[in-house]
Amino acid sequence: MQQERQSNETESSHSILPRKFSFKRIVVGFEYGGCGQTALEAAVAIAKEFQSELFIVHSVPPTSVTLGVVGEPPEAIDEHLEGIRSSIEEAIKAAGVTSRSKVIVGLDSPSILIEQIARQQDADLIIVGTRGRHGVEQLLSGSVSQSIAGHVNCPVLILGPEFDPTENLLKTILFASDLNETGVRAAQYAGNLASDHYCRLVLLHVLPKKPRAEGRMREWVEENVSDKLYKLLDADARSECDHEAMIAYGEPEQEILAAADSKHADLVIIGGKDHLSMSDHASWRTLTKLAQHLRCPILRVGANSK
């Protein structure tokens, strides 16, 4: 019995997030305009709550610099980047940002720069915004998304074009799980966030179609799925937060959107593979649809996120 207890304690310490976990270092992708400002506002709010340090990352495409300084020495490029950095710092100061922050401007693609800074700073969270349909598709279907969603070892908070940070009070969290490959780590984040913030937690699983036989057969299927959802939460989360299981039938993206609307979700949490490739069409389609239409942020948590 003692050996079994020790084994369970070892497994728990390896797989379960520390209680009252925190986002100490946050990397936020910044660009001038609506989505960049939205991402920054969300990052500032989270940083205030968790006493976090902010790393505000702005990427400058090489062409936009070199076109203006052809024939100039490398110092001209550095001066150009420094001017952009100073401008962002002034804007942040004018916005009343008081959190510890550092602005980083680099001559690189957004994906490479954000991933590089996240790894250098051992980030606990990355925050990115989207500009709408075209922006979402570019973010979630190109190199930016592959790097951010597939190659970093921390969660990524995605803010879609419908998100309004002034209306987002964390009262209800919707956790959507496929119960196969993406459940455990994301469930730990969902349970801990719900417990720490006294939120209502809705555990959702979407089945492709209803059982052929109604009545007791359907009840048995839904009871079995509900039990699996509850088991994703640790004992503390089950006892400390108000939670419920929800079973839906149909296309995952449509049902997640419907559940987020009906339950008035303030945050949707989904799991995912650590290395998501472009061949994972269903995963990309679901994430793209959610980012396009959700009124709340999406927290994507990889299977081995820190």
Give a written overview of the molecule.
The protein is of the alpha/beta class. It folds into 2 domains: 25-165, HUPs (Rossmann fold, 3-Layer(aba) Sandwich), CATH 3.40.50; 169-302, Rossmann fold, CATH 3.40.50. The protein has 12 helices and 10 strands. A 10-stranded mixed beta sheet has the order 3-2-1-4-5-10-9-6-7-8, with helices on both faces. Strand 6 (172-176), helix 8 (184-196) and strand 7 (200-207) form a beta-alpha-beta unit. It starts with a helix and ends with a strand.
Largest sheet: 10 strands, mixed
What Rg is obtained from the alpha carbons, in whole angstroms? 21 Å
Distance between the termini: 30 Å
Number of domains: 2
What is the CATH homologous superfamily assignment of the largest domain? HUPs
Q: What is the CATH architecture descriptor of the largest domain? A: 3-Layer(aba) Sandwich
Structural class: alpha/beta
What average pLDDT do the residues reach?
A: 78
Number of strands: 10
Strand order of the largest sheet: 3-2-1-4-5-10-9-6-7-8
Q: CATH fold name of the largest domain, please?
A: Rossmann fold
In DSSP terms (H or I, runs of 4 or more residues), the helix count works out at 12
Helicity level, as a percent range? 40-55%
Q: Give helix and strand order, one letter per element, not per position.
A: HEHEHHEHEHHEEHEHHEHEHE
Q: How large is the share of residues in beta strands?
A: 15-25%
Quick take:
The protein is of the alpha/beta class and 306 residues long. 47% of the residues lie in helices and 19% in strands.
